[in-house]
Amino acid sequence: MVFLDPCTGEHITITDGTLQLLVEVNDDSAGGLHLVVHGNAQGVVATGETTGGMYRLAGDFWTEQNIARDGFRLVVQLVEVHDVLSQGSGENFIVHLLSHLTINAAGVVTASVDSISAECRG
Description:
Elements: E1 2-4, E2 11-27, E3 33-48, E4 54-67, E5 74-86, E6 93-103, E7 109-120
Antiparallel strand pairs: 1-2, 2-3, 3-4, 4-5, 5-6, 6-7
């Protein structure tokens, strides 16, 4: 995964680490499924593309999906917040990600939102 450091404009690449996941699946009253996944970063590190600066990522994400019995009418939501901590003289920053996708019974996308923002924290 590659993302942009909002403090310097440098591309940062995740090079190692693990995501710890907790998954919960329940049947809904209409015969479909309700899926919730909570996760957090464990030992995730990244490297600056031009400076070689090292970063550690800490943070959580949450996703929720509702899947109809026939596989259509799908709603997916994803929320992520990650602190990116410089391991040197570079600045720290925070990344926010929000995604939402809705597909109706005909397989047509009726809503799609993607919002990514980042801000320097010093």
